[in-house]
């Protein structure tokens, strides 16, 4: 358990004393509060003729205390075995037999190098996230803003250059496309291949091998179709190009680039289909050891040049075509980044970073607490009866390394296996005595049995408590009741346990904004809880009115009805309209 400062503990003890001293009276008071609060909540939301009525409570702030209780006797022995909370090799023994020690004095020191490293790592991790949080909280500096503005300006310049490059790429394409289209027209529709001059070359290539392979017609038709498609695209595209100025708008230039890319692609397909036709012609003749016309080789050489030119323009146009939208996206992203810098950090990012800092702080506290466990200290003032270990020995949490004789009285109580898991040496305790009416004193857990005792199947553990006050009225063997404070939080928002339900792993309460409204479900995040109250971390505000019980009225009686939902483990049912100020105790 984390150490509590004196002021906090004194505040908690006052509540603890009131709980232990007047547990019988308090039960009656709580009952009155529950009935009274429930009545007014009941009246506030239900008329005389209503069928469903609600018992209300208000979310309030206070101190939430969690404790475990047990009973036992004042011990006739004042001897306590001190056991370390950690395991390791003993590197120093600070006491001798018969020596007198004060509470908190060092008895033994265990090797804590690994624990010290864990503390250093936790400190480094905490500082790292604190720096990250400070960076988020700081407004953007002048340099960062200037860099963001320059990046945005650069992207805009890149876009302007992309349009300029796009028009240049189109112009370059139309330096070669007319030559390619003219060359294709000459290759396909002149009559240089026919000996009689009566056929176009496209037909002559087909007819020369048609009797050998019927596929010649398919090649010829494909070449013709691809040429016609390329011609139509080229003619339309060329007219648009001639009508478009370098100073035209961005949309016009972008459309011209897209169209020229499509046209060049169609021209490249026409060149390829024509090449396929002529190559098919040559291959079929070669199969029959026939010599093709020398014109075919001339045509193929020209087509090879056209293919290289078309592919080069396709590559350039495609690059420009892709760079324009890419640069537009970069402008949008950098403009948004600049606005983000001007607005500052996102609230969710800040909240997440603060939560990370809190987690690292808790990790550092845990590491420091673990480091402290390697120093075995006296739980109270006393005399060293026996030192059971020496330097170099290995010690563990179950090893009694020093036996102390307490100067004050001790009380021994029994805890069950569930409660003893929550108790730790050093925790504060409030004790009352049946034989001495009105007496309540404080103490501290001095020793907890490592091995329990089984009686009729029930396992119990003996806990020794050192009394802070010596009172002559306290005698050995007297019955004692003790409440061990296992956890406590001050100024927390809390509600009765009966108000909190859970469904599908989500905790919720039912709230009402006014007396005449039907309660609405509100998701909440819960924290610490005891037998009566639950801490609300988020989801509610102080003063919010919540439903603790739903009452269904029948024609003959008012029958309480539990709210729907699954109970959260560790939270008991019941409850009424009254909120216990200052929290409550378990047991």
From TrEMBL:
<keyword id="KW-0175">Coiled coil</keyword>
<keyword id="KW-0812">Transmembrane</keyword>
<dbReference type="InterPro" id="IPR058627">
    <property type="entry name" value="MdtA-like_C"/>
</dbReference>
<dbReference type="Pfam" id="PF25967">
    <property type="entry name" value="RND-MFP_C"/>
</dbReference>
<feature type="region of interest" description="Disordered">
    <location>
        <begin position="554"/>
        <end position="587"/>
    </location>
</feature>
<dbReference type="GO" id="GO:0016020">
    <property type="term" value="C:membrane"/>
</dbReference>
<feature type="transmembrane region" description="Helical">
    <location>
        <begin position="21"/>
        <end position="42"/>
    </location>
</feature>
<protein>
    <submittedName>
        <fullName>Uncharacterized protein</fullName>
    </submittedName>
</protein>
<dbReference type="InterPro" id="IPR006143">
    <property type="entry name" value="RND_pump_MFP"/>
</dbReference>
<dbReference type="GO" id="GO:0030313">
    <property type="term" value="C:cell envelope"/>
</dbReference>
<dbReference type="Pfam" id="PF25990">
    <property type="entry name" value="Beta-barrel_YknX"/>
</dbReference>
<dbReference type="GO" id="GO:0022857">
    <property type="term" value="F:transmembrane transporter activity"/>
</dbReference>
<comment type="similarity">
    <text>Belongs to the membrane fusion protein (MFP) (TC 8.A.1) family.</text>
</comment>
<keyword id="KW-1133">Transmembrane helix</keyword>
<dbReference type="InterPro" id="IPR058636">
    <property type="entry name" value="Beta-barrel_YknX"/>
</dbReference>
<keyword id="KW-0472">Membrane</keyword>
<feature type="compositionally biased region" description="Low complexity">
    <location>
        <begin position="554"/>
        <end position="570"/>
    </location>
</feature>
<feature type="domain" description="Multidrug resistance protein MdtA-like barrel-sandwich hybrid">
    <location>
        <begin position="78"/>
        <end position="402"/>
    </location>
</feature>
<feature type="domain" description="Multidrug resistance protein MdtA-like C-terminal permuted SH3">
    <location>
        <begin position="491"/>
        <end position="551"/>
    </location>
</feature>
<dbReference type="Pfam" id="PF25917">
    <property type="entry name" value="BSH_RND"/>
</dbReference>
<dbReference type="InterPro" id="IPR050465">
    <property type="entry name" value="UPF0194_transport"/>
</dbReference>
<dbReference type="InterPro" id="IPR058625">
    <property type="entry name" value="MdtA-like_BSH"/>
</dbReference>
<feature type="compositionally biased region" description="Gly residues">
    <location>
        <begin position="571"/>
        <end position="587"/>
    </location>
</feature>
<feature type="coiled-coil region">
    <location>
        <begin position="112"/>
        <end position="165"/>
    </location>
</feature>
<feature type="domain" description="YknX-like beta-barrel">
    <location>
        <begin position="414"/>
        <end position="484"/>
    </location>
</feature>
